[in-house]
Write a structure and sequence with these properties.
This protein is an alpha/beta fold. The chain has helices spanning about 10-25, 40, 60-75, 155-165, 185-195, 245, 285-305; strands at about 1-5, 5-10, 30, 50, 60, 75-80, 85-90, 95-100, 100-105, 110, 115-120, 135, 150-155, 170-175, 195-200, 200-210, 215-220, 225-230, 230-235, 240, 260, 270-275, 280. The strands form 7 sheets. The chain has a 5-stranded parallel beta sheet, covered by helices on one side. Bound molecules: flavin-adenine dinucleotide. Flavin-adenine dinucleotide (FAD) binds near residues 111 and 290.
Length: about 300
């Protein structure tokens, strides 16, 4: 069997591409190395998204659920936990090789976002030992925070957004190693209006506890401060791994992302790309831009595959 299009990645870009593909009646397969939802479920499920059209605010996990439901309602075939290893040329079609199968496709959309991503670590004593016992890189659901003392580490939008979520149900402190936050002004203003305690210009020395986190020790102005803590949430960035791309024979930009033309075509015929994985002058990594690029990518893939008389 040969698919009209195989979409690699089921984040916002891949799911949008799937919806458009099915609206053109293309036989569509979406493959993801993890769970559907991309960064929205993998990195910030509890955070509010305030800039997706049609929703004043929507929790990232819920936005992902809606994108997923829409793709399913359009009868996209979606396979989770199936990592794409290679994209090879077949006789007339492309071969998409995963850890489990080889699939045939007339076109491919690369929408792998940041590839395999994992949160950056603080690298302090106690972090690894107490991981899962009060040290976490994702904010748990609100209900699990009630009655716990939360200490958040980080100074970007995501750390502040998560601190605000925690503050709505429990005692929350944010620790940042610099004097100013790097988050948007509006977000910082929200923080200033909240009850979140701010500990600035402070370095984390250790996370303490025997079987679970009991406190964290930070250093500020040469003094050690112990902050009683049940949950140490570390939110200082993500390290991305885009090694797969190097094997796929696509022309890459100096920063290792996929070089695309205005129509989202790549250097390989029949392969288009969209979302965080692509780079071009004026590129912004946002959900809306990922969805917009996905629209262009899939409509170009449709032209490539179906060659309609009007195209
Ligand atoms: C903390 C944080 C907060 C953010 N907040 C906002 C916000 O409020 N508003 C906003 O607009 N944007 C926000 N963003 C940015 C936004 O999340 C991204 O721009 C968006 O997720 C990009 O979508 P994508 O589909 O291109 O990639 P991703 O969401 O990264 O999805 C890519 C998918 O591809 C899969 N994949 C990777 N490699 C393979 C492979 N080899 N085979 C198969 N599947 C693979 C991954 O598992 C993943 O599911 C935020 C980002 C972060 C990190």
């Amino acid at each position: 069997m040969c698919y009209d299009v195989i979409i690699i990645g089921a984040g916002p870009a891949g799911l949008t591409a799937g919806v458009y593909a099915r609206s053109k009646m293309m036989k569509t397969l979406i493959l993801d190395s993890g769970r559907v939802g991309g960064q929205l479920v993998g990195l910030y499920p509890e955070k509010g998204v305030h800039n997706y059209p049609g929703f004043e605010t929507i929790q990232a996990r819920k936005l992902s659920d809606k994108l997923y439901a829409q793709a399913e309602s359009m009868e996209c075939e979606i396979k989770e936990y199936e990592k794409v290893e290679e994209i090879e040329n077949g006789e007339e079609e492309l071969l998409v090789i995963t850890s489990k199968n080889t699939y045939h496709a007339k076109s491919v959309i690369v929408a792998i976002g940041m590839g395999s991503f994992k949160p950056k670590k603080m690298g302090c004593p106690g972090e690894d030992e107490l991981c899962g016992k009060g040290v976490t890189y994702l904010l748990p659901a609100k209900e699990e925070l009630v009655g716990k003392k939360v200490t958040m580490f980080g100074g970007g939008n995501s750390a502040i957004d998560m601190a605000l979520v925690a503050d709505s149900v429990t005692d929350t402190t944010i620790v940042h190693r610099r004097a100013d936050f790097r988050a948007d002004e509006g977000t910082v203003r929200e923080l200033e209006k909240s009850n979140v305690r701010r500990v600035m210009s402070a370095n984390l020395l250790s996370i303490n506890g025997k079987d679970k986190v009991e406190s964290v020790t930070v250093e500020q102005d040469g003094k050690e401060i112990v902050i009683p803590t049940d949950l140490a949430v570390i939110n200082i960035g993500i390290s991305a791994d885009l090694e797969d791309l190097k094997r796929w024979g696509l022309e890459l930009t100096p920063d290792g992302l996929v070089k695309v033309n205005f129509d989202m075509s790549t250097s390989r015929p029949g392969i288009f790309a969209c979302g965080d994985v692509v780079s071009y002058p004026g590129k912004f990594k946002q959900i809306t831009t990922a969805c917009g690029e996905a629209t262009t990518a899939i409509l170009m893939a449709h032209k490539f595959v179906k060659k309609p008389y009007w195209a």
